[in-house]
Specification:
By secondary structure, the protein is mainly α. Helices cover 77% and strands 0% of the residues. The chain has 21 helices and no strands. The chain has helices spanning 2-18, 24-38, 42-77, 80-91, 96-107, 113-131, 136-154, 159-167, 172-199, 205-208, 231-234, 238-241, 243-260, 266-272, 274-328, 331-338, 347-365, 368-379, 390-401, 410-418, 423-454. Helix 5 (96-107) runs parallel beside helix 7 (136-154) and helix 17 runs antiparallel to helix 21 (423-454). The radius of gyration is 22 Å and the shape is globular. It comes from Nocardioides aurantiacus. Keywords: Membrane, Transmembrane, Transmembrane helix. This is H+/gluconate symporter-like permease.
Amino acid sequence: MEIVHSGIAILAAILLIIRFKVDPVISLLLACVYLGLATGLGATGTVEEITSGFGDIMAEVGLLIGFGVLIGALLHAMGTFSDLVAILARRVGGKLPYAMAGTLAVIFPSIYVDVQVVLAAPMAKESAPAVDKRHGLPWLAGAMGIGIFSGYVFVVPGLAAVAIAGLLDVPLGTYLLYGLPIGLATALITTFLFRLLLARGLWNDETDYDQDVVLEDGRPRDESEEVPVVQGASRLPLGVRLLPILVPLVLIATGAILGLAEVSNPVVTFLGDANIALFVGLLIAFFLVRPSAGADGVGKVLTAGFHTTGEILLVTGVGGSLGAVIAASGMDKTLEGLFSADESAPVVVSILLAWLIAAVLHFAIGSVSVGAITAAGIISPIVGSLGVDPVVIALSIASGAMFALHVNSNFFWMFTTLLDLSTKGSLKTLTLATSLGAVVSLPLVLVASAVAAAT
């Protein structure tokens, strides 16, 4: 019954938000209460899961969101995004969504998806008019979503990719050899298909943007416009102004790579922590702006950044509460009992089954990494007897784990609020793009199975 009740809770939350215009925080909390009571957690257990889920998510991403938003405000104050967008518009023009998807997937793979979205969202909002005045932001939003998660599941050192490979005893080098081209192809093909859907009338400005942040013409207001531009800092070389983004990414990647190589260094471990790395980026941005703006000027910039942080934190935390209640309901164990890998199944059936297990687990639980890890745990005991190269099963799980990221994911709500989308807008971008990506990558995994069998 956990599956039925979880389905009811998720659908009810979506219906309340989209059809009846109930605030997402209220809708998600109602879904949490219903699900907790319906699955036998009791009043006390339900409250405990709601509060602990909120707290766990805040411990995981609260500082990342805060530091990321403030870095974005300071970067805007230096004119960083506008200058970067001008350069990108000259060099890639309308192909920026492809460049963003590919870069997020393979150049800056998703070590931490939360870091990527808080750093990429401001640039997507500012560059949207240069890409397409009508569909620029939704196209970039879809490209961001599939780029981030293609890297997360297919490209080492993405955390889901590392976890899947580890559970199935696949060497990371082997996983990267197959996963990197699949991740890149998935990101680019999905971005192209998503553009076709937008051209066929998928998007509606009146329902798909957050109406609290739109202008009279129906376009989203760029809240960074509230941030005063600091003239002195804006004259710094663009490479210097990008350091608040580049330095944290290098620190995080260095820490992750050394960790994979089992090299221990306390300084690198400290600086490679995502929270510390972003704080370093914030300090760099602060000291770049301070000489030109002074104490009062920096204060005004940071105040503008704080303006949007509260809503993002609250909605993200409540999304984490729903995920915690679903997990506490025993959903993962119920789904695990429904699936049993057949050792004598043909190769294609084994691949499809691995994909399906991961897709269902992710859809139900709301976490790409948890869905992938749980699926790998279900299959790993018999992976050696399936007659399929373990790397192919690992890639199948990665493909399925992207399917349909939606309202039971805290990332969904971060994505929604950072890009000024409505719930329906995020379902049309993030949910649709990740679903397309899961489907697009499946035949690529089948091709990889043929290559693996021939080598």
